[in-house]
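Researcher: Here's a chain I'd like modeled. Treat it as a single chain, no partners, no ligands.
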Amino acid sequence: MKKKPDFNWLKNSRGILPKGEWFVEFFTPGELHAHRALKVLETSSTAFQEAALIKTHTFGKVLVIDGETQSSQYDEAFYHESLVAPALLAHPAPKSALILGGGEGATAREILNDRGIERVVMADIDYNILSFAKKHLEPWHKGAFEDPRLRLLAQDAKKLVEHTSLKFDLVYSDLPSPIEGGPAFGLYTLEFYRRMKRILAPGGVFTVQAGPGTPLQFELHPALYNTLSRAFRFVGSYTAFIPSYDMPWTFLYCTDSPRLAPASLSAPALDRAAAKRLKRKLSYSDGETITGAFRLPKYYRDRIKASRAVITKARPMFFSTSQH
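Model: Modeled as a single isolated chain. Structure tokens:
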């Protein structure tokens, strides 16, 4: 008699997780990612967002903001180097940079790693999150908040962009997801990007974190690509897999300079720039990593090409990875 298959790997909802406390993100009704939380280390609740620093079994300390994994001690460099390095190394001699958001301080850390950088302005709306980061996220910022080249502003990044007379070689948008009612969704619109472009110096580059790169949550990225393509001559999509996110994450690189266009990036040239200008070697990125990251699979290129969505003030897009 044939033995009946034993599907003991199928779990019911009551027994799906081992004993203990778990931080769970439901990406879709049928998909979740869970971190075993050994301890809640610190929390911060403000008018703008809720943050928690938890100690996890696998990824060490993990920063959670508004229910989303923001970054982990184990692999934050995968994200922050991916965000910063392409534009930083492509630009021939960046002197100034603006960070929109960036509360952990790790984006500033990566920019300040360049010996030639003279001024970095970082604008984050939430003073309490900045204080939280300074005190508890040293493994992320590694003292960047104390660097004399950094000017830290606890203010609305949108208002800074609208009123500043400064020009920047590099601008990075390291903002949380555009959650309805959250502080960031107004900085994901065509009107904002056109205004922001005015503060880019000639030959400047704008880079934005652009949401998940999983097929199940690939709505925000194509919409941002279309939106930014109406503001910039050259827009390139690139990705990095972030283990603590359990998915690829996407970025958009934008410029009007033909010599800095994504198709013009050279791996050897990027490596030469890194060797000449960076004080500390990168752990995740190099020229081959960067140029390869822009080579999206056909499926994603087709999804971007098929999208017609454009994000405007009148038609904002709200998005969160933890949707269910």
